[in-house]
Amino acid sequence: MYGYEALIFDVDGTLADTERDGHRSAFNAAFAELGLDWAWSEDLYYELLAVTGGKERIRYYVERWQPALPQVGDLDGLIADLHRCKTRHFLEMSGRGGIPLRPGVMRLLRHAHAAGIRLAIATTTTPENVTALLEGSADAQILSWLEVIAAGDIVPAKKPAPDIYNLVLKELALQAPDCIAVEDSANGVRSALGAGLRSLLVTVNDYTRNEDFTGAALVTDGLGDPGRPVSVLQGVLEGSDHIDLAALDAMHRRAWAEGEP
Ligand code: XBP
Ligand code: MG
């Protein structure tokens, strides 16, 4: 029926707008709880998003904005404590449904599952965050549809390294031409392309809209819905005015046809 067998979704920024009011708020709550006068504004957090992984992001912040801190002892321990605290805050927020899925996500997941398209997650975030987000904001049965949830520290190198997508392909026992990746950020694009996933949809958000998506097959402002057409920022949208299984099939065929000698 379709020329692809699996959809591989990123989480933060793709399934839901988790960063500005989710993760950023959780980081700030952790800083306050541990007695630090750090506060990540929306603008500062935009700069910090250049680094994926919450622990890595804290370390980047310390190195750039709190250079005197490492002299006061166990920095690794402090980062670990802060991140555990931050994750607890994020789980409380997302687990109670505080972070809704983006428009079209439930529709696309349901239709893909019904059509026998295999589903997987490739994310930098902590695995528990994925479970809490989907249980809190969607049909918890989605978790049973996801064959693979590859998340966080399960790989040695986080996005933009390709490790997490290579792991998902291995776990699915599929090749890159069998799959479509859905991302939101330049780091995610580089990770997917690095794993050979040419068939790559990017649904931008406020934080990522102006990033470089060179190599992505299609860039839109979201998945849209029937009666809620998407804006196309890069590439060609065929077969529909929003992202559905047929539009993804047209994108997939074009992505792999263009690459042929
Ligand atoms: C986004 C990330 C994550 C989150 C924070 O992941 O880089 O680090 O910002 O989550 P993706 P953690 O876009 O790949 O879903 O603090 O758990 O890392
Ligand atoms: Mg993302």
List descriptors.
globular; 7 strands; single chain; seven-stranded mixed β-sheet; binds xylulose-1,5-bisphosphate; 43% helix; Rossmann fold; alpha/beta; DNA polymerase, domain 1; 10 helices; 2 domains; binds magnesium ion; 12% strand; 261 residues
Small-molecule binders: xylulose-1,5-bisphosphate, magnesium ion
Specify the helix fraction band. Answer: 40-55%
> What would CATH call the class of the largest domain?
Alpha Beta
CATH superfamily of the largest domain: HAD superfamily/HAD-like
Task: Give, in order, the helices and strands.
Answer: EHHHHHEHHEHEHEEEH
Description:
It contains ten helices and seven strands. The protein has 261 residues and is α/β, with parallel strands linked by helices. Strands 3-2-1-4-5-6-7 form a seven-stranded mixed sheet, with helices on both faces. The model has no long low-confidence stretch (mean pLDDT 95). The site of xylulose-1,5-bisphosphate has 18 residues, from helix 1.
